[in-house]
Design goal:
Layout (H helix, E strand, L loop, with lengths): L2 H31 L3 H11 L4 H25 L6 H39 L2 H7 L4 H39 L4 H11 L2 H27 L5 H30 L1
Helix pairs in contact: 1-6, 2-6, 3-4, 3-6, 4-6, 4-7, 4-8, 4-9, 6-8, 8-9
Length: 253
């Protein structure tokens, strides 16, 4: 192994260790942070409510594309009555959690990183430490919990709007019977399918919120450092979302 490769591996291990230690400290700070529900609700609003428009629009168009593509595929096999089932399973198990996580990383994750990074660059976090105020408890933990709670809620909204989009195309445009569309869906969806979507959305929420908060908290205290941290958040969140999706899908299968 060359010196450059060895240094890259060591740097990766170092960052993994730093993130793991930060996660442990963050979990410890989450318990007292629960005593300040107003801070958590404010962060749920920032991470969740302010992402509603992009989530709903993306969910609607994703469902409409599923309706078009699903109808075209199922029509070749004479099984257009299964369109509702196909759309629901796709949204519940894969597209809903994954696309919501990617959109969350691009919108809310970058906002969390840049906000905390700016507080680091302007010495606000240092000032809190000087005044014996734990920035993990008052800054990082509420934002982590807000993202952890907001992402599953956004995923549920994405799936509901996506199903409406699939029904809009399949029933209104392609002529699939409305009763068959919904009855086939209800009879085919099992508790395991819903559980898989819920587990994925919670896991994505925890990992993506941790990445965003960690990158912002440890950003270099310069404008360039905050920009690099924001970029790392998007890249790491996207890669971890796809990696976790594969691992969880394999575990459920």
């Amino acid at each position: 192994m060359s010196d450059g490769s060895r240094e890259g591996v060591l740097e990766g291990l170092r960052k993994t260790g730093v993130t793991a230690l930060f996660f442990g400290r963050l979990l410890g700070a989450c318990v007292p942070a629960l005593g300040r529900p107003r801070l958590i609700i404010a962060q749920i609003y920032n991470a969740g409510a302010r992402s509603l428009i992009i989530i709903m629009l993306s969910g609607l168009f994703t469902g409409m594309v599923l309706g078009l593509q699903g109808y075209d595929l199922l029509h070749r096999f004479g099984a257009t009555s299964a369109l509702g089932t196909a759309a629901a399973l796709s949204l519940l198990k894969e597209l809903g959690p994954v696309l919501t996580a990617l959109l969350f990383a691009g919108r809310a994750g970058t906002a969390l990183t840049s906000e905390i990074g700016l507080m680091r660059a302007t010495d606000q976090l240092t000032a809190m430490e000087v005044m014996a105020v734990d920035p993990l408890r008052h800054v990082a933990a509420p934002r982590f919990l807000g993202g952890l709670i907001a992402l599953p809620l956004l995923t549920a909204i994405f799936i509901v709007v996506g199903l409406f989009g699939a029904q809009l195309v399949g029933v209104q445009m392609m002529g699939v019977d409305r009763g068959i569309f919904w009855s086939q869906m209800q009879s085919a969806i099992a508790l395991k399918d819903v559980t898989e979507g819920v587990v994925k959305s919670v896991a994505f929420g925890a990992v993506l919120s941790l990445i965003a908060v960690n990158e912002g908290y440890h950003a270099d205290p310069t404008a360039e450092g905050v920009g690099r941290a924001t970029t790392r958040t998007v890249v790491a969140s996207s890669v971890m979302t796809l990696l976790l999706d594969y691992v969880l899908t394999a575990a459920f299968l």
